[in-house]
Amino acid sequence: MSNHVLLKPGAARSSDSSDYRIQAPNVNMQEVPDYLKRDCLLFYYPDCEQLAKRIVECSEGRVELAEINWKRFADGFPNLFVKDAIRIRNRHVAFLASFHTPGVIFEQISIIYQLPRLFVGSFTLVLPYFPTGTAERVEAEGDVATAFTLARIISNIPLARGGPASVVIFDIHALQERFYFGDQVLPLFESGIPLLRERLSQLPDADNITIAYPDEGAWKRFHYQFGDYPEVICTKVRDGDKRIVRLKEGTPRGRHVVIVDDLVQSGGTLIECQRLLATQGAAHVSAYVTHGVFPNESWRRFGGEQGNGATDGFKYFWITDSCPATVDAVTDRPPFEVLSLAQPIAAALQI
Questions:
Q1: Strand pairing of 185-190 and 165-170?
Q2: CA distance 202 to 305
Q3: How many secondary structure helices (H) and strands (E) does the chain include?
Q4: Are 53 and 65 contacting, i.e. CB atoms less than 8 angstroms apart?
Q5: Fewer Cβ within 10 Å of end Cβ, the chain: N or C?
Q6: Who contacts 292 (Cβ-Cβ below 8 Å, separation ≥6)?
Q7: Strand, helix or coil at 307?
Q8: Do 65 and 40 touch, CB atoms closer than 8 A?
Q9: CA 217 to centroid of chain Cα atoms
Q10: What are phi and psi of 311, to 5 degrees?
Q11: In what side-by-side order are the strands of the sheet with 185-190?
């Protein structure tokens, strides 16, 4: 049985609305008047096929899949062909991309640059995971901020007949990166947190949830979306060459503590955080990240059956389907559960 969960993004609720600023997704399909809804032709990179099909399922008949022939010449360079190019003229067209490795970016950029030039009415790039986001700073002369480089490439998408391209990205790693994009594109920054909130509300112990942040950076990013939950904040301190996770504030004892962050790579920090919360008396520990990157199959560090208590490991580990290769690897492997971005993407395509 698949562990993919298709959820309607839930609005956050709080008795004090000043606790957090984002209370709902940017776009809610149920709130878009029928006369403003539009049909969309969705192209996609082959690795994104399953997510593309889920987007169609969630689109209320507004999204139709379109095809590209993805081939290569003998020298390895891409040999690409957009099927039915005449049919897409004056239509709302979107492309679902996955820049999971540098080797696949060029062929997708070639498509992304070509589609608006085929006389389409409007164009939207859906890039759920902005992969260079962790390289956004220049701390010493000579450092290269590759996040800025990728933003510049995306910012040069040609204009469609209707104007600039829209770019949909979920939980970009560093908030300042939204200012890296030029005026020739219209970025729409979405979040997977409403999916998590909806899932938490379905748990048997929904009234015993505490949200934890593995460091101050995660707290700054997400705390305003969890103002109605008790919170725990961890911090990283340096001990020689090691970084140790310590409890900064909050009380995990007796609670089901859910660690929240935007992405995971090796998973070392999450594991250290889980161990700390277990020693502090947490009843259960779970984790959520929007982007399960997991290079070199590091997701295997989290395998095994769901634990009965915090000391047994993670009860749940939620990710979204923003990284297709990871989804294929962890499907039906406890404690992982995939929350699909299909519905918020289908809604975003209405802009």
A1: parallel
A2: 20
A3: 8, 16
A4: yes
A5: N
A6: 263, 264, 299, 319, 320, 322, 323, 326, 327, 330, 336
A7: coil
A8: no
A9: 17
A10: -70, -15
A11: 63-65, 40-44, 92-96, 122-126, 165-170, 185-190
* DSSP 8-state code for residue 11: P
Half-sphere exposure of 173 (CA within 13 A, CB side): 19
pLDDT reported for residue 174: 75
DSSP classification of residue 240: T
Rounded distance, CA 265 to CA 245, Å? 17
Strand 4-5: give its sheet, edge to edge: 4-5, 336-339, 314-320, 284-292, 256-264, 209-213, 231-239, 242-249
Q: What's the distance, CA 341 to chain centroid?
A: 7
Residue of 36 and 127 predicted with greater confidence: 127
Report CA 109 to chain centroid distance, whole Å: 20
How far apart, in whole angstroms, are the C-alpha atoms of residue 37 and residue 160? 19
Structure tokens at 134: 């962790």
Q: In degrees rounded to 5, what are phi and psi of residue 96?
A: -95, 115
**163, amino acid identity:** G
- Are 184 and 2 spatial neighbours (Cβ–Cβ below 8 Å)? no
Residue whose structure tokens are 């395509």: 349
Compute the radius of gyration of the chain from its Cα atoms: 21
Angle at Cα 273 formed by Cα 315 and Cα 269, nearest 5°? 110
- The tens digit of pLDDT for each residue in 250-309 reads 999 999 999 999 999 999 999 999 999 999 999 999 999 999 999 999 999 987 655 556
Q: Residue 278 in contact with residue 250, Cβ under 8 Å?
A: no
Report pTM.
0.89
**Tokens representing 165?**
């391209």
Alpha-carbon gap, residue 59 to 341, rounded angstroms: 12
